[in-house]
Sequence to fold (487 residues):
Amino acid sequence: MRVLILGGGAIGRSIAESLKGEFEVIIIEKDQLRAKALEDSGFQVVQGDFSYTATLLKAGIDKAELVIITTMNVDTIKKTVYVIRTNNKEVPILTVLPDEVNLDELVSQINEEFEAEVKVDYAISPRSALKDAMVKTVMMLGEKKNANLLVRKLKELKSKNDSILIVMHDNPDPDAIASATALSVIAQTLGFKTQIVYGGEITHHENRAFVNLLGVDIRKISRGSYELKRYPVIALVDCQPNGNLTVLESSDYEKIKILIDHHQILQHLQELLPDDAFLDIRPEVNSSSAILAEYLRTLNISVSPVLGTALFYGIYIDTKKFSKLSHVDLKAIEFLAGKVDYELLDKIEHPDISTETAEILAKAIMNRRIYKNVVISNVGFITNRDAIAESADFLLRLEGITTVLVFGIVDDRIEISARTRDVRVNIGTVLREAFGDIGSGGGHAQSGGARIPLGIFKLAKDKNSLLRLAEEAITEKFLDALKVKEG
Fold:
């Protein structure tokens, strides 16, 4: 890229030094002694007044791909822009501007004085540049604060023990698994022994492929298990005690010293956790993986291709294929982009589908009931909970359908997944309103889930009657929360 820097003073020289080696830089400097000093320093210099056509032509204005004006004199800037545009109408122009003049005013004055239509592409004022630099520094300090507080807590814990149990929610998805793995890496750099666990099932075929291909060491545990008893410290990732987490007993809560999550703060959380627990809960961020990637970046911890791929895919899934990104998610993607094994990523994203999942998808299609633009489907008694979510994703693709609910009975509970693309509907709020009084429900604006314990109904011998009653109750409560009449 051929860059002309107009002015070899302090600003021009600093810019040239920063660009040297990466770009073809030519400095135009009027002062003979300064021009000679720049040449002696190895810069390509054209001596002359850059507001004159002859000087710009000598510097190759016709072949320039960027022109940077470094003077703060407005009259000189206006004349120089006019001369540049006379000789090159398309080259991008970046200029410094005094604080009292904005870009629109500058262009208007040039057009009026020279009776010509010109454009200036970019302008930077000292005040705005200082503001941007300070805001950037504040953001960086905020990032470092979170990471440093985590490290401080880990060091404090390390003085008393060297083992941490990292607990995910019952049915961990890629975001939870990647985040737990990243926290494990951070803790291990400080000398901890770690174990990642969960209490439910990993049945979604993409999630199983994710675990198998990445070789992530995670274990399934049960409530009151030996692992929960023997580990003195518990860290929760991508979950909270009153969420989709059934393995912890109330006596385990006092051992929770770290909690990192991107979901909204659940009810009575502060009452459940010890006062000295490290909490980083950011509902404005769309993935826990992005938060953990921020820690790794600010702590300068090396990220392997496996971990980079895991975190990248975790963000990809929880941001709905990068369609909903916060600035933290964006920075994490930028940080991870060069650390991803894309061949491995493709295998994770396109695994073989299991026979059981295919059968459940078929049930969801066959058993669907349509209420205006809403589909409700009952997939019956199943063991693969994640197939319910996959079925909901699939049914939302049907023409004319904007909202979907799929439910099935897994062990002693009804599992529900819902999706919507109706911008007027917050499906998480709908599920909480519909099923919060008889179970639990919630989620985000476009996707969510609910769980209803069967209670005494699990003893029913007539399974068909149980399914019919469940479907009637779920349909009525869901449509009522959506304010849709049956018909």
Notes: The mean pLDDT is 91. The longest helix spans residues 126-158. The chain is about 45% helix and 20% strand.
